[in-house]
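Protein in question kept underneath.
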Amino acid sequence: MERQQTPGRRSLAQRRRQRAAAGHSDLSHKVKGAQVSGGHVGTLTNNFHAAAQHHHYHGPADTALPQAGRVPSERLEQLERVYVPGPYHAKACEQLLAQRYVVLRGQPGTGRSTAAARMLAEVAGTDVYRLAETTEPERIPDRESRTGGFILPVSPQGRVLTRGALETTASRLLENEQYLVLVVDHNVRLGGVEPVDWEPAPPRDVLARHLESLLGDDDYRAFGTELMQLEATQLFLASPPVPRECPTYARLLAGYRRGTVSEAELEDFDTEADRRRVASALGNPDVSLWDKAFLIALSVLGPAPYPLLIQCGDRLAEGLYAVEQPGTPVGRPVFDPDRMSRLLGLAHAYLAEPAGTRFDGAERPVVRMYDEDDRLHVLGQVWWQHPETRGPLTEWLDSLAYDGEDSPVPLSQVLPAEDALAEGAMLLGLVDFPGASDDLLTVWAMSPNESARRVAATAMNYLAEYDASADDVHDVLADWSSGPEPELCWTAVHAYSTRTDTLGARTPAEALTVIENALQAMPDQAAGTEDEGEAEDEGDEPDLLGECGDALWWIAEVGDATAIRTVTEHLHSLVFGTGEADEESEEGEEGEEGEEGEEGEARWQHLGLTLFLRANHAADADEDTLLGVSLLALLADDRPGVPQRTRDQVRDLWTEALSAPDRADDVRELLHTWLACARTHKPSRHYLAERLLPELTADHDGSERLRLLIQETAAASGRPDDARLLTP
């Protein structure tokens, strides 16, 4: 049956090429997930089970060792042709010959059993047996042949493997001229036993050896290099794969050479191998919830310090155990010397050098997945295939987002953990946007806790980077900004100003819609009309007006000329549109309705002017559309159509700004823009000195404050001659 190419495969391939070129030390790589289509990402959709197509590749029966019984001689002969020794193969063989047994400890899938069979074939011939996991070393059955070897995979649920028991077994092995290789995971308890920590040979070498065996010497010399350099092969090796996946991929490559396998099938195998690896880690009953919680924590927080992941993951594990074993006390692992290596293998991760990530005030080495797309695979399978984890997962995420006393680790101690948490929430949004948005992001967005609101806003910003998610994100943000809750409004606006490549600069029209919705929902008190008692009562509410100004600042700071012009024209309409409305109200409306209309228009005008003061210093002096100057220079002009009330309000607003210590930075930035404009643009320096600046000072005190600020700004800019602007 023809296989269907996984949606988003090309996008995934491009990202992995970049990662392979950058190397694992490039900590600037960010997870982007798979290509999003129709509101979904890759094959992770709102109906995960129906949408995901899993292509499983099964090799011939002789490609794997039997679960128990004699290893076929054909299999041992094949190993002689394709086996590539790992870096500790020789050391393990030396121990095996010296003491009749050796313990190979490593991660599942790294070829330990295959290595054991090859070692035994080297020292004991072809009489090799694989024992059941329940077999105890002291009870290895006798064989008719006195010479032979045994592979014993040790169950992690068994008793402690002690040196004394193995020495007793070794005496019997020596008597019978036999050998024993014990294969153990890192969670098997060892008592006084010195294992060989197994590492496989490089995947490229393993794949090349298997491909050579399948193609034959002549074909491999002719086409082997080309096949190994295929884009799909490079992506497969960059994962990097576990050794047991290399023989299967080698068969696919051989089929591709013969024309029976397409390149799309090669790429599909890569993704399916990733998913199988994750499914194996999450579904393995021998892996504790402590370890699985670490894997989930790494998937949410991304590259993060090991102690942070342990503390956060253990808190998640407590919630998972409460679901799996309610009411049963569960001990937390303490002084487990093998835990780090075990967890790194489970997560297909490595320990990298610190790069800007701090924990408890100091930089720490970070845990990083080899294949960062595994984060999406983990969260997708946890969310859809193990729905019983959703409750503990969302509660745990809440504890992190709120950054309070109940948080396992206050995120204020970890940088940049807040962004990392937002990225994890973004991945859940890609897995299930409606579900994650309703269960997490909306709850955080309406929280009185500002850290939770910031995480929600940043997550929405990340989600909007995907074209297929952008429309959904804008719709949700518009909905948040339309309600009466000031926290929701604040979060919606903050999403447009939360990053240096701000979403608002990319979509100024949508940003202005959200900002205007928020201003419409803003109570009159925020516009400056409240009495003192009301101001005290509302003092704990988010500074919505300031957030709107910040969003506009970012649009003008990082947006292009079109974005700046869009914002300028919109704010002009708020300020100057009231003049025409006044005339209409005077002609067509009388009495109370007219007065209410004037009050509403005055409020919008004041809001527009305030936003200009908050946002005007963002404009680039090299642009023709200078946000602050474009309004205030116009106010200083004598042209008709600018109502006197607007001029009066500008003076009042400017006087208020000059008088308020907390607005000094805004004023200095505004003056910096004006001075830059005076040097490079019309209106001229004399125009600013004679017309604009006096327009903004209502009294002698205001003039003096303005003069002082200009002098400070001129000195800070390195152009002290700018201070002469006030001199006619």
Summary: The chain is about 60% helix and 5% strand. The longest strand covers residues 178-184.
